[in-house]
Automatic annotation (TrEMBL):
This is Thioredoxin superfamily protein.
Length: 176
């Protein structure tokens, strides 16, 4: 039995006994877009390797991280289903920008003192800490650090971080 379908933009024929409707639809879709959509990588799931996101444990650890001189993206979050997307974005961005930018996640219910100092009431939110001028020596025993804090208000994706770093002049990769 042979059926010709002419109402579609491209006429297609199929043998109803050898191919099912599903196979015919896939074949028609492939022919209409010009390639097999299953051959191309869609981005999910990505193998990012070990996690590069640092989990906040103390303010001392945070200060030591700032003293390393790399920009630090801090995500102030709550542990809930709504932040699962943010966790994935942080993992992807941390893998892409490692080791030039560090990513840290703070669970605010565990560390309320650190989160309250940021004076924000809505969660999750992100801030980027970076030092444009690293460690000026004021005295032989004292080194002054100036840390600039920028609220992150761009697209929450690796692309959004890249554009944010570019706009604010934050080095996110090796100089060429």
């Amino acid at each position: 039995m042979e059926i010709v379908v002419s109402s579609l933009s491209r006429a297609a024929a199929f043998d109803g006994e050898q191919q099912g409707i599903g196979n015919w639809q896939v074949a028609y879709y492939k022919s209409s877009i010009g390639h097999d959509p299953l051959r191309y990588y869609t981005g999910y799931p990505k193998d990012l390797g070990p996690s590069r996101v640092i989990h906040f444990t103390s303010e001392r650890e945070f200060v030591q991280l700032l003293h390393e001189g790399h920009p630090v993206v801090v995500a102030f979050t709550l542990r809930c289903n709504l932040t699962k997307h943010l966790d994935g974005v942080l993992e992807e961005a941390a893998a892409e920008f490692y080791p030039h930018v560090k990513f840290m996640r703070v669970e605010c219910p565990k560390y309320p003192g650190f989160c309250i100092t940021r004076q924000r009431k809505e969660y999750p939110f992100m801030e980027i800490f970076h030092s444009p001028q690293q460690g000026r020596v004021a005295d032989a025993n004292i080194t002054k650090y100036s840390v600039k804090v920028l609220p992150f208000n761009y697209d929450t994706s690796a692309y959004g971080f890249r554009e944010f770093f570019k706009r604010h002049g934050i080095q996110s990769s090796s100089p060429q």
